[in-house]
Design goal:
By secondary structure, the protein is an alpha/beta fold. The protein has 8 helices and 10 strands. A 6-stranded mixed sheet has the order 6-7-8-3-9-10, with helices on both faces. Helix 3 crosses helix 4 and helix 4 packs parallel to helix 5. The structure holds adenosine-5'-diphosphate (ADP) and magnesium ion. Adenosine-5'-diphosphate binds next to helix 1.
């Protein structure tokens, strides 16, 4: 993919505080190096999605600062941030084709230049969707729909990619395939990736750094290998143990 090149941006959350109406207060401090791969793990309801939403700008903090690539983005709306996000599901517009859904990453009005069209075609080829450009989302498998979401992220060329349990609705084989694709794109393009996941296998295969979220805050951060080899904090081992027991 030669038309789509980019690299990662470093990321910093400084004393970010946030609460949903009537909810408990959360607080996040976090530094991520440019081009790092980060797994965000923690119990259900601990604040993983909220953390990603704050970085993407879908939620606004009560106080604190978010700096991405050296720029203070705290007050910027989502579309002005150098960030793309993929959700667990419902990433696509049902009435638009694959090519149009991807094209939205370039232009919200779908007025595409030659260069935009070339980037869309590249991204579609790169995510293994060639030949399916004219299909509607309903005519795609769950895995293919997530690939379309990924292709749209690619044409946006943002240096930070956020993934919120993107494989949770896919079977294990498709999930592995998606993870391999994201890993390959990361090797090629070096974007900074933060991925919320429940699956320690995904974290192990993909991430260099692990962020452990508990009770609305980051309670630990360190090398994924260290955490998963039993040398992380005791609370993380307890979380993994409880999680394994559930599976
Ligand atoms: P996780 O992604 O780790 O499961 P979330 O970030 O979704 O956790 O949720 C953190 C906490 O905030 C939970 O207590 C959840 O119930 C609450 N919460 C999440 N979204 C909302 C919302 N839109 N309005 C009110 N409370 C919310
Ligand atoms: Mg969540």
């Amino acid at each position: 993919m030669n038309r789509i090149t980019r690299s990662g941006a470093g990321l910093r959350l400084e004393a970010i505080t946030f609460a949903y109406p009537g909810g408990a207060s959360m607080r996040f401090d976090l530094t991520v190096e440019a081009s790092d791969t980060v797994a965000i793990m923690g119990p259900s309801g601990s604040g993983k999605s909220t953390l990603l939403s704050l970085i993407a700008g879908f939620e606004m903090p009560a106080s604190g600062r978010i700096v991405i690539g050296g720029e203070d983005v705290t007050l910027l709306p989502p579309h002005r941030r150098p960030v793309s996000m993929i959700f667990q599901e419902n990433n696509l517009f049902a009435h638009l084709t694959v090519a149009q859904n991807v094209g939205l990453g370039r232009s919200p009005s779908l007025r595409l230049t030659e260069e935009d069209r070339a980037a869309v075609a590249d991204a579609i080829a790169h995510t293994g969707l060639a030949g399916k450009e004219k299909r509607l989302p309903q005519a795609l498998s769950g895995g293919e729909r997530q690939r379309v979401a990924l292709a749209r992220v690619l044409v946006r060329e943002r240096p930070v990619l956020l993934l919120d349990e993107p494989f949770a609705s896919l079977g294990p084989a498709l999930a592995d395939e998606m993870l391999d694709l994201i890993a390959a794109l990361h090797r090629e393009q070096g974007m900074t990736v933060l991925m919320a996941t429940h699956d320690p296998r995904d974290a192990e295969r993909f991430s260099r750094t692990l962020v452990f979220v508990e009770g609305g805050t980051i309670s630990a951060i360190g090398p994924t290998q260290k955490f998963l080899s039993g040398h992380g904090p005791a609370a993380f081992d307890r979380y993994l143990g409880a999680h394994r027991a559930l599976r």
